[in-house]
Every structure is written in C-alpha cells, then in structure tokens.
Amino acid sequence: MNSDFASGTAVLDPIRKRFTRERISLRMIRLSKGTLKHAILFSVAVTCLFPLIWMFSSALKTQSTVFTDLSIFPSHPHFSNFADAWTKGGFGVYFLNSVFYTVFCVAGVLLISSLAAFAFARLQFPGKNVIYYLFLATIMIPVPGAIVALFVLITKLGLINTRLGYMLPQINGGLALGLFILRPFFERIPKDLEDAARIDGCGRLGIWWHVAIPLARPALAVVALFTALGVWNEFILAQLVLQNQRLMPLQLGLVKFWGGNITQYPLLMAGMTLSVLPIVIAYVFLQRHIIAGVTAGALKG
User: What backbone phi and psi angles, to 5 degrees, belong to 74?
Assistant: First the structure.
C-alpha cells in the first residue's frame, strides 16, 4: 500500500507543480494586463485633468508671476481675480446670455428633433428614408465649411447681431444628432402601446407626448447634454454674428482679456475657470444619465 501511495504521489507531484506554475503564470499575465490598463487610464486622466489644474492655478497668480511661479498652488493665492473677472470683465451679462442661449437651443432641439424622429419612426410617407439620411449627412459637414453660406443666409434674413441669428443655426445644427439618437427609441415602441393610447382617445401628438417622450427620457437626456455642451462652448458663430456686447455669450467675453499689446492672463484664466465650471459640474452629476442613454440606445438600436 505504501509503495503504491508513494508511486502515485510521485506521479502526481509533477502534475501539481506544473498546474501551480501555470496558475501563477496566469495570475502574472492578468496582473500585468490590469496594471497596463490602469496605467493607460491614469495617463489619460492626468492628460485630461492637467490643463484644468493649470488653468485654476494660473487664475490664482498675478500678471508678473503667472509664468515664473511654477507651483500648482501658489503660496499667495489671489482669489480676487475671480471677482475682478466677474465684475470688471462683465461676466455677469455674458453668463446670463450663455444660460439663455443654452436653455433656448436645448429646448428647441429637443422639441423639433423629437417630433421629427417620431414622424420618421412611426409614420409612413414617400421618401422617408431619403429625407432621413439627408438630415444625417449634415453631421459630416463641419461648421467652417458652411460658415460662408451661413453668414450670407443670416445677412439676407436680417438676423445679424440678433439673438435669433445666433440661436437658430445652433438649433439647426443639433437636429441631426437628435434624430440619430431618438429614432431608434421610437421605432422600438410596441405597437400595442400605440393602439392602447389611440383607444384612449390620443391622436398622433398625444401618443408622442404621453407614450413616446416618457420612454425616450434617457435619449432625451443625452441629446440635451450634448446640445448644451455645444452651445455653451460656441465661439466662431458668436464672433461672426454678434457685435453688440450686451448680446455676447461667455466664450466671446473672454476675448476682452486678450489685448493687442498685453493679455491679462490671470483674469483670462479666472474667466475660463468660471466658464468651464458649469459644464464640469453638469458632467460630474449627470454622467450616469449619459452612459445610460447611450447604452440604452445601443441596445435598442
């Protein structure tokens, strides 16, 4: 018995050792892959966060130390730069203008794109797909490529230096993305829900409002966030259309700190920090809604 047990152990020992070595090697491979993945993610995070940190740090310095003091947090921070940027730079007016433009454009894009997407998804009419893909093709046209035609059109309509002349092109520019995201949601609405709503007395608009819109809330959140981000950061169109300082948005107001002979870098960085802060806060609190909306759209599409 002992000899048989010893011989069996002698046979199993190499197998156990080999199995242990393979297990250790698999652990090392997984550990190295995990380390590499986290190193890449950490480097990307640092690359994204460093400009924001440097911007905030420069906003706390003076004009004479902004390029000489290389510390992340200066020993003598000047928080008054934010108050000076808000008061002396007129940021209160620019900020309210940006809020108004953003709210108006987001509401316009959500209203028009949801109605159009519902029509493309639930109605049957000649040339439906052709018109839909023509709308989507506008996504491939960059803003600089259409800026001349856009300027001529706005001029002929008499909308230069007006709020409508600034907001209508942005609403038009956000419709294609809204159609692209919302149509798959509306197409996957069960026909039974539509029939039940019709039995309850709902027409087309009633079905859109009471059935389609509640089911598409994640997609609507995604469209609203990306539209708000684009409108809030818009600069080229504002510079082209608006000359009256009372109508200028926040991004165009930053140019006031950029002079021909001297640039007030601390005030400029303080103003940029104030302009970036609302978007950063919105992304921190609403990032789950963005992921949920995009993921739901992928699953439904």
Answer: -65, 155
